[in-house]
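Protocol step 4 of 5: obtain the predicted structure for the target chain.
Materials: sequence only (see below). No template structures provided, no constraints applied. The aim of this step is simply to have a reference model before the mutagenesis design in step 5. Sequence pasted as it appears in the construct record:
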Amino acid sequence: MIKKLFFSLVTLTLALAALAQPRWTADGNGYYKMEDGELVQYVLPSASKSTLVSKSDLTPKGTSQPLSVNNFLFSADQQQILFYTNSRRVWRYETRGDYWIYHRALKSLTQIGKNRPEATLMFAKFSPDGKKVAYVSEQNLYIEDVATQKEIALTTDGNRKLINGTFDWVYEEEFSCRDGFDWSPDSQHLSFWQIDASKIRDYYMINTTDSVYSRIIPVEYPTVGEKPSPARLGIINIDTRKTHWLSIPGQADDNYLVRTEWRSPTEIFVQQMNRAQNTNIIYSYQTTTSKATVVYQESDPAWIEVFSFNGNPSSYGYRHNFQWLNDKREFLWQSEKDGWNHLYRIGINGKETLITPGNYDVIEYISLNEKTNTIYFLASPENATQRYLYKTRLDGKGKAERITPLNQPGTHDYAISPTGKWAQHSFSNHYTRPMEEWIDISTHQAIRESESIAGRLANAQLKPTVEFFKVKTEEGIEMDGWVVKPKNFDPSRKYPVVFMVYTEPASQTVRDVFGAGRNRLYQGDMAGDGYLYVSLDSRGTPAPKGREWRKSIYKKVGILNVRDQAMGAKEILKWPYADADRVAVWGWSGGGTTTLHLLFQYPEIYKTGIAVAAVGNRATYDNIYEERYMGVPDADFTDYKKCSPITYAKNLKGNLLYIHGTGDDNVHYNNAEMLVNELIKHGKQFQMMAYPNRSHGIYEGEGTSAHLAGLFTSYLRKHCPPGPK
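Step 4 output (structure tokens):
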């Protein structure tokens, strides 16, 4: 549930440390990037720079301004480049816009899809032979001949409810499915998803401010208890333009198709999950016969996570859902089935090999090199708030070996070149701003001494302001936490405590990264004003602490995690300098939900709460998220009622400020009004702020962010006064 939003609000500066994947050159010894409006190439290790496409090259004929480039994509032979520009937002990301091809040999620039409406093209990509480009426009799939610019519609039935080549709201939000089509390796076919949302009811958002008459904005949105949008996979023959639909076992409205990828010109892999998302099957399909073979199957008593392995985004197709091995006779897989999140290699004959044995979690797969029998991944066996680069043998016969230097505690990320020789390395921790360097992966030494992270750390004057700690509750649950203490802290005096919460399966709040302990919504300096600012990660958060830690929350979201938070708070309030009479809690989205739960279920602990864009009634949220973590509901929605804040609203005793955007397409505004009705019913006084037409991020419109921060700050200061006593 909105982990992207959560990160942007609570740990905004962390994005600086998360580097975009480098666009590696074909030989892996250099990379491309947009710089000052031009496409340039850097060669490693010298870092010599050359311009591939200049501003003048990017200026269409008849205009004076170069294209403002959002993204770029090379053809397989590197002789043509697609430039993505004039982007528009689709729900969360800017995934539609215009595309232009730059022909390097001719030094010419031509627009793709110029007959389509402006800024309607999505996910344009070259065919492997570079002769055609495919794209989606207004829910239909098109191809265009590069040489003649002839445009052909491969589907014509697309509309808001029948979606070809891309996805509906819920697939995009919960499975990260956006780009919904792929070229076959021989450029003769296109595979594509078709989502039938015709039976999915619309949620109606109402725009009441842009005209004197209100305007209805419908969003196809399957809430808890609704069956999935039926999805099917089609294979289009480019020459005949005929579509063959794969015959996939099971009812389409009782399963999800979450990943697919071509293995050969006549074989495609399809990953299917059941509605409860606790059974996963990978099928191999021979497209000429529709013969299906089960390659791999897995089940879990709770749920199964969906993983992807991304390829080099400079290639003609950069979304790879399967990382192939052994000349495509095996593929990489990630699973928690032995109690830990591990990497496996799975043969197309079903044989599997555990690559990363041990009592630790693989946080993220990074890269592999079959020539050296090496696989790289992120892990942190000793500290769940951090992440480091490890490597082991790809054949599963080795032990994990840490590559990140021991004297750089914190959070690291890597992008390793296809050759396995170079890497882009980023680092930050709670007291170190994000740093970047290019390294030789064999030595972990910076290619250029001037950008060496080790050198910069040695000369840095660093003053930590955040303290990390562990707290064990009376029920024996140990949690990680951080605290920012007041400036001029006097342990003999008592200070108000403000808890920042999220604590659902979508995200951790307690991570050793730059930005930890910061509150973007507070106008001023919380530490300077005299607050103790605290966050805890309870069970259910995606911390690398094993399957049981993460999945113990199953069917208990809003109960188990909330109790952990409350019991952790009880321990913190035993600190002699914590003022138990001044305790506040706040959160956004899932954190807003947790805030409501804590105020309602544990009013003896939490005196003040600020909940933003919260799910007040779990039955209103989307089926994929909720049914994954809460199970498919029974006829009476028993578990959902137990786990919804609205059920406990009658217990409110303290101060509540509730904030929501009326144009929220994610956590709908009806959550606010249902909650308000329940509070009114029980005679509970509270404050509420509705931001007209603002989305889940509540940032649109002049002055919005400043107004929201001012509201947050004034309410907190009034009801949880700062300063020592």
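Step 4 remarks: The longest helix spans residues 704-719. Confidence is low (pLDDT under 50) at residues 1-19, 311-318.
Proceed to step 5.
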